[in-house]
Amino acid sequence: MNLPDPLLIDLRKVQGFDESSFQKAHDEPVTTSVRLHPIKRSGTDISGDAIPWSNGGIYLAQRPVFTLDPAFHGGAYYVQEASSMFLEHVWNSTVPQTEGLRVLDLCAAPGGKSTLIASLLTNDSLLISNEVIRARATILEENIVRWGYTNNWVTCNDPRDFTKLGGYFDVIVIDAPCSGSGLFRKDQNALRDWTEANVDLCSARQQRILADVWPALKENGLIIYATCSFSPQEDEDILDWIANEYKTETVPVSIRDEWGIVETRSPKHKMHGYRFFPGKAKGEGFFISAIRKKESASTLFLRRAKAADMSKIKQQAGHLLANDNLQYIQPDKESYNAIAAAHEADWQLLQKLFYFRRAGLPLGAPSAKDWIPAHDVALSIDANLSLPAIDVTREQALKFLKREDMNLDSAARGWQIIKFNNLGLGWIKSLQNRANNHLPKNWRIRMEIPET
Ligand SMILES: C[S@@+](CC[C@H](N)C(=O)[O-])C[C@H]1O[C@@H](n2cnc3c(N)ncnc32)[C@H](O)[C@@H]1O
Fold it and tell me: Which residue positions are annotated as catalytic (predicted)?
């Protein structure tokens, strides 16, 4: 592969850069990897070699057609680049507690980092996954619904909207939009579109994004900053920029030599960063650093107003949930969601300030004589395990996912979850002589399914 000269010239200044192994690796194929869901993983038999910095990350020997695997649609695993999973090691090394945290994943689509973070938090922690681009927020929401965590909310806002949440977050993850050189092996367009001018533009945007959310971080809170760019202008230079602007320090992370990850230091303030160079580490290009805020931040006091009486809704929809300590909210006129009791005051505040795609677990809506369950319930890890369900074969599951007739011969009537290997995929409603498929239209598999 013909790598851009200006990039190579910049990289020669970076510690640990080995030009010949880097060039050679860019003529080799990429490895596919997935991260298994901590709870739903029993629904898949996908296997491979363990990724050493991630619990649940595996390298696959080949790339299967994920669209044709119902376990993928049920959220048994997430297809993610191995280097990105290093976030888990950084998180475990730098975030002191997992309980009661407020976490923002600011640039979250399509959801790789968010689904990873959701797996690391306890139920009383809150993860806000934000994506500014609307079409991408839709994909993010789908992936988060599939992963099934009630405490993972989705917003669609500009970073500057978070400025007003003074000192609210314990951790802010910024997987910044970047020039994408780390993905040259995966994406030919990234190579074709790469220019020095774009690197400068990305670097300026990264500074703007950091400045926008800085006030929203608590004193001693962490920003985990990452890019998939090799350019020092978007990596070490950003660490120096942030150290020039604010009182900060980076938190070093211990790494094993055999992982092939390179620890670098920013030229001016000697801030710690971790680089993945193809040819050294088994993964694509990636940079990550954990930055601690060492200055005071304003404190936002949350007031919990008396919530509306939801006892009638609890009677109608409570059967959908495995535990009854969740609270009910009404995000719009027609539908109801469940959230952890610990997050009621957060909802009361945040709903006034942000465009929500999802807060908590959507439960659905009452109809004249029925409760119409939301699709999200079928995929939720908080769903009642004894809800009526039909176990289907792989072929039937794929038909369901294509919204085609499955030829079921079940006598049961009413709302039922379609399950494959115990993984919920969605709802059908069985009537006297037919079953209606309630998979949302935009979730439908569009590819042709080959005959087996
Ligand atoms: C590297 S991707 C994030 C990948 C994601 N964190 C994951 O792990 O799946 C960067 C994201 O930033 C979003 N983005 C683009 N411009 C932005 C801006 N000005 N502010 C915030 N986010 C932006 C992009 O739409 C994109 O989804």
Answer: 228 (nucleophile)
User: C-alpha 272: how far from its chain's center?
Assistant: 24
- At 346, which helix (H) or strand (E)? helix 344-350
pLDDT confidence of residue 161 = 98
How large is the average pLDDT for residues 31-40? 98
Over residues 103-145, the pLDDT tens digits come to 999 999 999 999 999 999 999 999 999 999 999 999 999 999 9
Question: Model confidence over 410-432: pLDDT tens digits?
Answer: 778 899 999 999 999 999 999 88
| C-alpha distances in Å from residue 421, one per residue of 126, 363, 389, 400 | 29, 23, 12, 14
Q: What are the tokens at 415?
A: 């709302």
- Contact (Cβ atoms closer than 8 angstroms) between residue 221 and residue 169: yes
- The rounded Å distance from CA 433 to ligand 1 centre is 47
Residue 175 is labelled as binding a ligand = yes
Separation CA 78–CA 255 (nearest Å): 24
Whether residue 178 contacts residue 237, with contact meaning beta carbons closer than 8 Å, is answered with: no
Please tell me which residue in 156, 178, 202, 228 is annotated as part of the active site. 228
Give the residue, out of 107, 227, 284, 286, with the most ligand 1 atoms within 8 A of its beta carbon, to mutate for a pocket test: 107
Contacts of 306 (CB under 8 A, 6+ apart): none
Q: In 10 A of CB 390, how many CB atoms?
A: 17
Enter the tokens of residue 297. Answer: 């931040």
Phi-psi region of 7 (alpha: psi -120 to 50; beta: other; left: phi over 0): alpha
Report the alpha-carbon distance of residue 386 to residue 323 in Å, rounded: 12
Cβ burial of 187 (10 Å; 0-12, 13-18, 19+) is middle
Q: Is residue 156 annotated as part of the catalytic site, yes or no?
A: no
Q: Can you give the pLDDT at residue 22? A: 97
What are the backbone dihedrals phi and psi of residue 315, each rounded to the nearest 5 degrees, phi first? -65, -40
Nearest CA to ligand 1 atom 11: 107
Sign of the torsion angle spanned by Cα atoms 52, 54, 58, 64: negative
ipTM of the complex: 0.99
Residue with tokens 């495995």: 322
Please give the structure tokens belonging to residue 13.
């200044």
- Sequence-separated (6 or more) residues with CB below 8 Å from residue 391: 419, 420, 422
- Is residue 108 within 6 Å of ligand 1 at its C-beta? yes
Residue environment code for 333-358, b if the CB has 16+ CB neighbours within 10 A, otherwise e: eeebbbbbebbbebbebbeeebebbb
Which two structure tokens, joined as six digits, stand for 112? Answer: 């790789």
